Amino acid sequence: MISIKSVAKLNLFLEITEKRPDGYHNLDSIFSLINLSDDIKIEFTKNGEINVATDHPEVPDGEKNIIYKTVLRIKELKRIKSGVNIFVTKNIPVGGGLGGGSSNAAAVISCLSKQWGFDAKSEEILDLAKQIGADVPFFLHDARMARCEGIGEIVTPLEETPELWFVLVNPGLNINTGEVYRSLNLTKEKKDSKIIMDAIYRKDLAKIADNFYNRLEEPVLKRYPVIADIKKVLMDYGCIGSLMSGSGSTVFGLVENEHQGKNLLKLIKENYKNYFLRLVKSEMEICERKSNSEEVVA
To answer: 135, 142, 231, 281: which one is catalytic?
Structure first.
């Protein structure tokens, strides 16, 4: 049995540059891994079957699960005869703009690559990953932060990035990503991620926070004013900057250090007793293997 962790992400910057003829949208985004993770247990078998289950009622088991689809595609591509039993303990809020499903897929690809002997960052695997989910290629790069372009598949890792601390607040809303994109107004002047990238390289927290941006906030805030309320509370309690991640509904606030984050978390717990609250920091790796007592089965 192999146990791995797959970590979540935040969008520190997200601009939608255009709508493509195929219906997808091109973006310019700065992704950051954070140390909030799902736990995945993988058992390799000789019967060829794929079994995937989770502990979360809103995440499908079996063939509809993104991990199942990922393993099936890998088995077909690499002509693998063995099977897997996979169980996921979900700690990342589902549908919260934190990339939990894509992270799971990438972590499993990384694990399978070690067991079945293929390169997880090869062109054919990255192309497969893009088809599974636009965020999956980012998670396969194992970069603390990266600039992602295209639909998310063009990944440029950022070097020597600072360790950042964030307070997360998720109100439990399940926001439909498709509806958010359909509500976008793309006629406005576009913002460029280069300014926040420069601030990241300079490790200038104030400048990083000043350049937080998410084009998807505009349609979400109109429909879900609670997101704006959370942002205001985080700023009122001392965050340097605050932003919604992805299409929501998770909001994060940047703090100066772990100590400030812990104190802020204590203060806002009274405001948000029924919300998901967490202090996290920027992470280095998408997939951390905790144990391995299973022989390779291919």
So the answer is: 135
Strands (E), the chain: 2-19, 25-45, 50-54, 83-89, 145-149, 154-157, 165-170, 213-214, 241-244, 251-255, 276-281, 287-292
Q: Give the pLDDT confidence of 52-95 residue by residue, as tens digits.
A: 999 999 999 999 999 999 999 999 999 999 999 999 999 999 98
pTM exceeds 0.90 = yes
Please give the CATH number for the structural domain made up of 1-298: 3.30.230.10
Among candidate residues 5, 9, 75, 231, the one labeled active-site is 9
Judge whether 269 counts as a catalytic residue.
no
Per-domain residue ranges of the chain: 1-298
156 forms bridges with which residues in the sheet?
147
Task: Report the first-to-last Cα separation within the chain, whole angstroms.
Answer: 15
Tokens describing residue 296: 């390779």
The verdict on whether 203 is a catalytic residue reads no
SS3 state of residue 161:
coil
Closest CA to 103 of 75, 143, 133: 133
